[in-house]
DNA sequence: TCTTCAATAATCGCATACAATACTGTTATT
DNA sequence: AATAACAGTATTGTATGCGATTATTGAAGA
């Protein structure tokens, strides 16, 4: 008995922090949090980069207090690493953590697929197809647009489930994937094959939950193998320098 | 007149913050966060309860700064609701949010089951069975122990996957389930049927991933129907009093 | 008696100030 | 020359203070 897909209550931007009613001033802590979040996801702040409180506060025009608050939240989401008395860095997931993220993401998105199968409204269906057409167009020019659109497709699907928590988790996993691909990804691999998106939509519309889930599973699996690469760099100065030390006959403790 | 401090969180001394081993200076912000988290999960702080920064800081022996920081993080995890200029409350999930949480949890734990199928070491297998025996024993006396143990079984499984993110999400979902059951749950339903746990272990050991996943799915499904109930109480004074008002012929706006 | 509204009290949002800790460059010791 | 000890500086951890916002109370008007 297919319920109709539930519309999601107005986009609360993220999390349970309610936006103030219209006209009310937005808490600046929230603004700082969002700014940093975007900067990290868009890789303006690269993985591993040091995040000094006062420098960032100054740049954003707020005090350290708010920056710290933002750090705390970002740490919960895994975008920032907090080390006691040593400040914050943009997270630098290990290859192992990367695999964990992808595995969880697969599980979550399979849930999305199952949830959506047979419940897409015509409007939603149309929206997805329009999106895929955009992807196709962007794919030809092979810019960074292509990558962004690929990601948005998955977010769109999660939104359509009407399950706010599921959406949050998918977004979170997706954010972390951005970090991961920035570290371990091939330079210009388009993450998603557009044709796979098309097939998926088809299965969803046909109401074939099992097939949709399998397609999603396979799709994300292939993203990993297409995009993931052997590690390019190391996070810790020690690890970076170890080979140099050895080649010069030095002995790191 | 200062509001009387209510029995808030346990004193910091019994919060299992890393103890002064090796002179590790654990930020007290972390301690506050954990204390509040536990207090909420253990329902010392009930859903919907107001969380004034001052009172809590005083009770915990820290300033409002640290309390605010903790609130921010708890809000990301969905345990606290933050309303701009109006402070924080313990989250009070709606019935719809509750369903969302359970759905996501099912998806996550299915992943756990699939991941673990055929991979349990003998030691892990034994540990799980020992745990189930504990559950059985507790079940006879039907205390609150029973509920705690049921939850821990699921956490243990998630731990065994070795996937840190998966563990975190399962824990988070689990925390929120505590809130949900505090609101909508039957008074003394033992959440999990012990026999279902046994079957699950069996399937995992046999390496039957599909069966394990299906069992987990079914298991959690039945938890919902066993434990979930129509709403018992309302969070807002207005809603609590509405029926009284009506019965007295008063007309709340 | 029921509303409207102003005064007051309580609480939050944020910056700043001070204390504690870690980093860096220099000097002393072997 | 290498290591150890130290001091100065930079950065983080936490408390406190002040203006802003919201809740509450009480009184005046209808």
From TrEMBL, chains A, B:
Record has Calcium as a keyword: no
Gene Ontology molecular-function annotations: DNA binding; DNA-binding transcription factor activity
Region of interest (Disordered), residue spans: 1-24
Alphabetically ordered keywords of this record: DNA-binding, Transcription, Transcription regulation
Gene3D superfamilies given in the database record: GntR ligand-binding domain-like, Winged helix-like DNA-binding domain superfamily/Winged helix DNA-binding domain
Ranges for domain HTH gntR-type: 26-93
Entry annotated with the keyword Aminoacyl-tRNA synthetase: no
PANTHER family to which the protein is assigned, alphabetical: HTH-TYPE TRANSCRIPTIONAL REPRESSOR NANR, TRANSCRIPTIONAL REGULATOR, GNTR FAMILY
Annotated protein name in UniProt: DNA-binding transcriptional regulator, GntR family
Organism expressing this protein natively: Bosea lupini
């Amino acid at each position: 008995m297919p319920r109709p897909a539930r519309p999601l209550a107005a986009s609360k931007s993220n999390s349970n922090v309610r936006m103030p009613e219209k006209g009310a001033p937005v808490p600046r802590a929230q603004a700082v949090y969002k700014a940093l979040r975007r900067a990290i996801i868009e890789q303006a702040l690269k993985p591993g980069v040091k995040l000094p409180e006062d420098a960032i506060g100054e740049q954003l025009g707020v005090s350290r207090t708010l920056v710290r608050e933002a750090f705390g939240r970002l740490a919960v989401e895994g975008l920032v690493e907090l080390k006691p008395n040593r400040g914050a860095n943009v997270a630098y997931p290990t290859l192992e953590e990367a695999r964990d993220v992808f595995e969880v993401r697969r599980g979550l998105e399979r849930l999305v697929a199952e949830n959506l199968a047979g419940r897409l409204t015509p409007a939603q269906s149309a929206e997805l197809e329009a999106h895929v057409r955009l992807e196709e167009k962007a794919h030809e020019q092979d810019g960074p647009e292509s990558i962004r659109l690929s990601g948005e497709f998955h977010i769109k699907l999660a939104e359509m489930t009407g399950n706010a928590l599921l959406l949050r988790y998918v977004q979170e996993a997706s954010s972390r994937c951005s970090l991961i691909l920035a570290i371990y990804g091939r330079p210009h691999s388009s993450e998603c094959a557009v044709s796979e998106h098309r097939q998926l939509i088809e299965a969803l519309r046909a109401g074939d939950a099992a097939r949709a889930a399998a397609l999603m599973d396979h799709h994300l699996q292939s993203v990993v193998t297409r995009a993931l690469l052997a590690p390019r760099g190391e996070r810790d100065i020690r690890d970076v320098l170890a080979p140099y030390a050895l080649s010069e006959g030095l002995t790191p403790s």
